[in-house]
Each structure stands twice: as C-alpha cells, then as structure tokens.
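Chain A, query sequence.
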Amino acid sequence: MTKVATRFAPSPTGPLHIGGVRTALFNWLFSKNQKGSFFLRIEDTDKERSKKEYKKQIIQSLKWIGIEHDGKEYIQSEKINEHKKVAEELLKKGFAYKCYCSEKEIEEQKNMAKKKAMAFVYNRKWREPKNLTVPAGVNPVIRFKSKIGGNTIVKDLVQGEINISNSTIEDFVILRQDGSPTYQLSATVDDHLMNITHVIRGDDHKINTVKQKQIYDSMGWEVPNFAHIPLIHSNEGKKLSKRDKASTIEDYIKIGILSDALRNYLLRLGWSFKDKEIFTLEESIKHFALSSVGKSPSRLDMSRILSINETYIKNINEDKLFLNLKTYCEIYKKKIDPKFDSTLKKSLHFLKNKAKTLGNIYENAQYIIKDQIQISSEDLKLLDDLAKKILKEFLKEFENIKNLNKDNLEKIIKGLIDKHKINFKGVGQPLRIALTGSKFGPGIYDIISSLDKNKVIERLKMIK
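Chain A, predicted structure.
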C-alpha cells in the first residue's frame, strides 16, 4: 500500500490567509491520522509578487498553530525545467499544441462571450491549424488539448462524485509566450514529482482538478485522490478574503488568541466528531476523517473563537499560560518589568477569570505591573465623601494587621458595612477604584492579596 502523502502549497505573495491555515491543518491531520507525510510546497513562480518575508511568515504561522512539515520546503521555482520538459512531452505526444493567437484576438473572444453571458472558452483556432499561416516573429503559447466531448468524473472524498462536461473546459495554456509554465502545469507536475497521494484543497479548485486530471491521464501518471473542502465565509456570507478583518494568523495573535484554541476552532469549522467540541492535538489526529467534513461553507464566527479561547485560558496549566502571556507581551511591546513576574504568576488564577484573550489578562493586570495607577474622571466621581471616609477607616485598621489573610480582611470590611449600614459594594467599589484605578476588575480580596502591603497603604493614602 502506498504511503499517504499530502501537501500544502501556498504562494508567498502575502500573509497566510486563515482559510489557508485550515486547509493546511486538514492536510496535516489527515496525513498524521494515516501515518503518512505532510509536505510544504512554496509556489513562488510569480517572481514580482513573491517575497521572502511572506515565505517566512507562512512557515512561522503554521509552526505557531502546531503544524510542522516533513523534510525541507519544496520550492516550485527550482523545478521549472521539469515543468517545461513535461510541456514539451505533451506537445510531442499530441496532447498539446502551439497557439499563435494575439492578445487582441483573445480579448475579442472574451468580450463576445461576455455579451452572450457565456463563460469564455477559447475557440481552439490553432488546435487543427489547416490553412493557417504561422505569423513571423510571434512566440506562441502552448495550450493543452482538452477533451471536447463527454464528461470528466472525479470521485471526490468530500463532495462525492464531481461530473463536469468537457465542453466547458477550454484548451488552457500550459506554457506562456515567455516560456514560463502556468499554475495548471506546475501544480500537476509537482504533485507527481512529490508522489502526492491526496490533494486536499478548497472547493474553488474543482475546475483546476478536472484540468489537472487530464494532464495526469495524458502522461499516464497515477491520479491522486482529491478532496475539496468548502470555503470559509465572512459573517456576511461572502467568501473570506485577505481584505477582511481577522483574516490572517497575526490578527489573532495580536489580540491574544492561544494557538491551541485557534487550531481547535479551525478543526471544528466544517468538521465534526459526535458532539465533541474541545479536542487535544492527539484527539484531533486520532479522530480526523475526510468523511466527516461537511459540504457547505462555514462562517467565521469571532464570538465562537473568543468562547473557545476563554475555555482554553481557564483550563491551561498556569505555568504555560504565564509563558504565553509573556511571549504575547514581548511580541507586541507590552512591557512588563521582570520584578512583577512572581506576583503576576501567582495572580493568574483570578486574573484569567472572564478573560477571553491574553490581551484581557494583560489589561486585568495593569494595577500589578504599574507602579502608579491612573483613576479616570468618571471613577473619581464615585469616590464621594462617604467613600473617602470608608477608605480612611479601612486604611487605619489595615495598617495594624499583623497577619494579612482573608479572615482579617473580612472582619475589617464587615465592620465597615455594619458601621455605615451599607452593602459590600459600598466598601468594595471604593477600594477597587483606589487600588486598581477602575471600578471593574478582580475581587477585592484577590486585589489586596496580590499587592505588597506597603503598596496598598501607599495607594490608599493617595486618595485625599
């Protein structure tokens, strides 16, 4: 039995799109489930738009989410001569031909098709060039001789049987006028050279698959299995593009989404296993099957991403969460003085409460990591005369505490509640504002226990 081999083949012409990440994930999970190999092919033949920084970003993005390819990256531009050889062979065997049509002629054919509201199909003028004179000084393109009659059938592992009339497939170009190979030729030759057994990609590639299958058949090569996964749509139901917000990995890292949480979300975006929602990496590999991938497009749901991320934040080992937080802060220059590390680490158990992102935890920790806090004008209004009196009385008793623990703090707060005939909020809110700079935040006992006693005293004394 042939060992399963999948590939992900992005073009380094821009940051990796979130739809591409999911395609890579499905390829990787399928190959790992089948004890096979997963390869990364960089399709960099568009020399003008391909950039090294995008290639680097693609590899880093995949690694961040937990996907590492086998072997070295396969660089498409290094195989151009192999692609050209196949074009020449197809020409020699009669499966391709030289086309001398000018750009003007092709444009006229396209305009004619547009007027008739029909899909453009090249008129095959040079397919059987009887009584045609080869124009002098014109470099031809090489076109593949597509089948004219009948249908091409592809047994798709997700969509089922794909049946497309050959009359709708034009004689597509495989070598341009300058001798450079096109995507249809290069992708097919590369998949053959890499011994790819399963081509898993977006369902916008269905027509490409039919064209590429014809090249496989003409060369007498073994045709790989194909699986076309539905595209990801925006909340508005449109195809997600790089122009949409939150379309790249960086968009998620920037707000503090954990890699495991995003991977889990993308896994469940169009795939399911029973009614299970949260998957470890090992469970993802164990249960993944193409037969469980849905046929309909999925919508990107930021609220669901945040919900899953919140679940991961609540359940992750706190040492690991701390490392994630520090890395997040370093990347986005949210400076945290190392002197606060131990306090921050021991406070994570409450700082992460209700936090949906690492960014939320960072914001919740501002009162810890800043030597001085700022109180907004709105919150200052809440510190009326009674509130200030309560803070002074609390400070007086707090300074005399020898053993700082919850029981002792509760006694002081309860005494103030009874004395002034107020509820807990009447004491807790002024304390929270004075100690953190905001009426929102962690519980008052957590705040006080996370601050040095002298720091609590210093901040309370600032309220005049």
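The mean pLDDT is 92. The CA atoms of residues 5 and 37 lie 5 Å apart.
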